[in-house]
Specification:
single chain; Rossmann fold; 4 helices; 4 strands; elongated
Length: 172
């Protein structure tokens, strides 16, 4: 049995990390992996929150110490959503620590390093393309609604935010 760490992330309060846990545990058992550490992050992989960065750093440090040789995630997008370059950087940093990343949902991730790099690059490119298409479809739908005279979004006059909004500065 090899030691592994589990990485789980959920984006919203409505999601539950336990939804990933059963499948991950089955995967580890089927692959002869002993779970020695679990990392759970609540929040977006896009934002790079302090919690996300701290857990990622702890995962890398423990891998460097040799506490485990495998990281198991439900899927690659549970660790990063920043595209192919970020995913490849993460996978290469793990390799430097003699650690591999496995995904319950993406069996192709367990191939040789060369094949893994090609497939991660392609998957990242595909995800970016799908995101761009989704944005285009959304814009087209909003424009069609505006053209039809539909008043879109916004708050009613005098309404207040229920939660403070996250705002980006002009320099960001």
């Amino acid at each position: 049995m090899r030691n592994c760490a589990v990485w789980m992330r959920v984006s919203t309060d409505e999601q539950n990390a336990e939804n990933q846990e059963a499948g991950i545990r089955q995967f580890c058992e089927a692959h002869g992996l002993t779970i020695v550490r679990t990392f759970v992050v609540y929040g977006s992989a896009w934002s790079g929150s302090p919690e996300y960065r701290a857990e990622l750093a702890a995962m890398m440090d423990d891998a460097w110490k040799g506490e485990y040789s495998t990281i198991v995630a439900w899927s690659l997008d549970r660790i990063t959503r920043k595209g192919a370059e970020d995913a490849l950087r993460l996978i290469r940093q793990l390799r430097e620590r003699d650690c591999v990343l496995l995904s319950v949902q993406e069996s192709w991730l367990s191939g040789s390093p060369e094949i893994q790099d090609v497939l991660v690059s392609f998957a990242g490119w595909m995800a970016e393309q799908e995101s761009a298409r989704r944005s285009e479809r959304t814009r087209a739908g909003l424009e069609r609604a505006r053209a039809a005279g539909v008043k879109l979004g916004g708050r009613k006059p005098g309404a207040k935010d229920k939660k403070p909004r996250k705002r980006r500065s002009a320099a960001a």
